[in-house]
Amino acid sequence: MDFGCPSFSWDTLDNKHLLGRTYDQYGDLKANKVIVVPKNAVCKTVLEKTENHIYSGKHAYTGMAVLGLEEPVIVDGVNDNGLMGALLHFPGYAEYPEEIQEGKVIVHPGRFLAYVLSQYDSVSDMCSNISDIEIKDELIMGQPTQAHYIISDGTGEAVIIEPVNGKLNIYRNSTGVMANSPDYSWHKTNLRNYVGVNNLGHNPREVNGLLINEFGAGIGGGFGLPGGYASPDRFIRMSFVKEFAVKGKNEINGISRMFKAFAPVDIPQGLIKAHPDHEAYEMTLCMTAMCAESKTYYYTPAENRRIKAIRLEEKMNTDKILTFDIGETEDILYL
To answer: Which of 73, 77, 51 is nearest to 63 (CA)?
Structure first.
């Protein structure tokens, strides 16, 4: 299962803490729903048909899920304590242990986020207990689930978790930006290639006796940023957007600005084609964002830019899992 994306954590001027991502892949959102999983829900940590690997949730949570398997694959979400997370595609780098240590909690990569959101209060709580988890992959439709994760909370700390060489690498106090492969350490090193990027224009200068000015009537900020849609390019652009973008005044303004901030990495349909002979394209199907303080999950699909939201605290007092349609039909306010 391929979930392309970049993701970043952010805050607002009134100290609200946000996490957002784009959801990019070939295909569509027909198998996706926004769900609410109540506290004490009995779920499995794996996707296989089994009566083992069952747990009871300590926290309610809401987020995006891929349905149709034995258990929902949770790709992002926020819990009732404000812990937030997103699953990102990690092809060619995700390596899971060949042998499971006795006493470990066995978790499928597509169920990792569900387990984290249902069990832990905060980033610190998760980091203190994550050694109890062993990620074990099982094929979905013949394909492995290669994933890494970004987790954040109301403290503003963002943690990157990557399964490499059979163990979980934990990057605490990260830059709060993540994309797909390569690994976070590589992306962080690659930032050094762009140390000269800023948001200012350039003064005229003389070259070989010729006075030259930049193009664009002073619009020279961001010069040198890469322009492609490969993961390294998108990580760089997302990093400088986070660095320079004006923060929101409050939660709603921050969410609106966050969705706008994804514009430099939003993939329109047609630019990434699967095969010369096939009309299949990778594109940004949806953007999501969430707030740790209000426990609200926001999303906007590509075909319907109206922002929709689930307030977890209004929906969590239920004894069953709730599902909500993505709502891709364009909703235009005619005046």
So the answer is: 77
* Burial degree of 317 (CB within 10 A; 0-12, 13-18, 19+): exposed
pLDDT digit string, tens, across residues 89-117: 999 999 999 888 888 999 999 999 999 99
- Phi/psi for 153 (5° steps) reads -155, -165
3-state class (DSSP) for residue 130 = helix
Nearest Cα neighbor of 163 from 181, 177, 141 is 181
3-state secondary structure of 233: helix
Look-up of token digits 């660095």: 243
Q: Quote the tokens at residue 302.
A: 């590509």
Helix (H) or strand (E) holding 128: helix 123-129
Residue 34 · residue 310 · CB < 8 Å: yes
Give the SS3 label for residue 297: strand
Q: Return the structure tokens found at 146.
A: 């290669």
What secondary structure does DSSP assign to 135-199, as a single string? E----BTTB---EEEEEE-TT--EEEEEEETTEEEEE-S--SEE-SSS-HHHHHHHGGGGTT--S
What value, to the nearest 5°, has the Cα angle with vertex 256 and ends 252 and 261?
Answer: 140
Cβ-based neighbours of 99, under 8 Å, separated by 6 or more: none
User: H helices within 195-276, ranges in order?
Assistant: 231-244, 251-261
Q: Which of 296, 328, 327 is nearest to 62 (CA)?
A: 296
The sign of the dihedral angle between the CA atoms of 27, 28, 30, 32 is: positive
5 is catalytic: yes
- Tell me the backbone φ, ψ of residue 2, rounded to 5 degrees: -110, 115
Q: Which residues pair with 65 in a beta bridge?
A: 33, 74
pLDDT-derived band at 200 (thresholds 50, 70, 90) equals: confident
